[in-house]
Automatic annotation (TrEMBL):
It comes from Rotaria magnacalcarata. The keyword Transferase applies. Transmembrane segments: none annotated. GO terms for biological process: nucleobase-containing compound metabolic process. This is Nucleoside-diphosphate kinase. Gene3D superfamilies: P-loop containing nucleotide triphosphate hydrolases. Signal peptide: none annotated. InterPro entries: Adenylat/UMP-CMP_kin (IPR000850), P-loop_NTPase (IPR027417). Pfam families: ADK. The keyword Nucleotide-binding applies. One of its GO terms (molecular function) is ATP binding. Keywords: Kinase, Nucleotide-binding, Transferase.
């Protein structure tokens, strides 16, 4: 019910992506919450680009740890194909083998400078093997 929340809702209803600047503004608001300050927080899929890192640095937000789940494209494709048949799936996703391969290629090109920056600057980047179990 905030101005920021209404702004985000309008963008999402139109089917557009949230701008990185807006995502960081939301993160700033969340970080002011006492629970977040004492218990910590988890961001799924952020930061993904060098622009995200620059915005976080500009705001003085330094994640304590960043975990990259390592899983090859073949395994991701197999999991996506299994998820397709899940009747409880909340919404349709573009998860064809071609789409997954394309998303992975973009991810690999975008994440390299992010991984390098956090590894060198803060030594807080960790890679975990996610192939054995998608929930482990």
């Amino acid at each position: 019910h905030t101005i920021l929340g209404k702004e985000m809702q309008e963008v999402l209803i139109k089917g557009k992506d949230i701008l990185p600047e807006t995502a960081v503004r939301c993160l700033e608001v969340a970080l002011m919450n006492a629970k977040c300050q004492t218990r910590g927080y988890i961001l799924d899929g952020f930061p993904l680009t060098k622009q995200h890192v620059e915005l976080l640095v500009e705001k003085g937000i330094i994640p304590f740890k960043l975990f990259e789940l390592e899983c090859d494209v073949t395994e991701c494709t197999i999991r996506a194909m299994k998820d397709r048949s899940d009747l409880n799936r909340p919404y349709p996703l573009p998860d064809s083998p071609e789409a997954i391969s394309y998303k992975n290629a973009i991810y690999q090109s975008e994440i390299m400078p992010v991984r390098q920056w956090y590894t060198e600057e803060h030594k807080n980047w960790m890679t975990l093997n996610a192939k054995s179990n998608k929930w482990l």
